[in-house]
Amino acid sequence: QVQLVESGGGLVQAGGSLRLSCAASGRTFSRPGMGWFRQAPGKEREFVAVVTWNGGSTYYADSVKGRFTISRDNAKNMVYLQMNSLKPEDTAVYYCAVYNGGSYYDARSYAYWGQGTQVTVSS
């Protein structure tokens, strides 16, 4: 079992930045890939970014590429999402999750989820 707790969300103006953190505890953390998803009201949960177990590879949704950066610190059991140049359309609840095999871009490929942190970007 893995427990995930997200933090760092908040209200920011368009063009601003936020850094989300995800603290993991429980089973061995260093092996699996870790991802970030988001869900806006009335919309399905969508892939944002994923980092492989050693941090060697990262993948991003086209909508955030060049603005968001995912990273991880296995020694601290932490995953981060640096979000720059935020837009109102980035407003959503952001979730971190543990990759469990399959497509990185599919939420069904992730086994454990945090409770989410709200990000609101005002125009």
Notes on the structure:
It is a single chain. This protein is mostly beta strands and 123 residues long. Helix content is 0%, strand content 52%. The chain has no helices and 11 strands. The strands form 2 sheets. Strands 2, 4, 5, 6, 9, 10 and 11 form a 7-stranded mixed beta sheet that branches. A hairpin with a 6-residue loop joins strand 4 and strand 5. The radius of gyration is 13 Å and the shape is globular.
Short summary of the structure?
The chain is an all-beta fold. The protein has strands at 2-7, 10-13, 18-26, 34-39, 46-51, 58-60, 68-73, 78-83, 92-99, 110-113, 117-122.
Q: How many strand elements?
A: 11
Poorly predicted runs are: none
Structural class: mainly beta
Based on Cα principal axes, name the global outline. globular
Rounded to the nearest angstrom, the radius of gyration is: 13 Å
Query: Termini distance?
Result: 40 Å
Largest sheet: 7 strands, mixed
Give the H and E element order. Answer: EEEEEEEEEEE
Strand content: over 45%
Q: Can you give the helix content as a percent range?
A: under 10%
**Total count of helical runs of at least 4 residues:** 0
Average pLDDT taken over every residue = 94
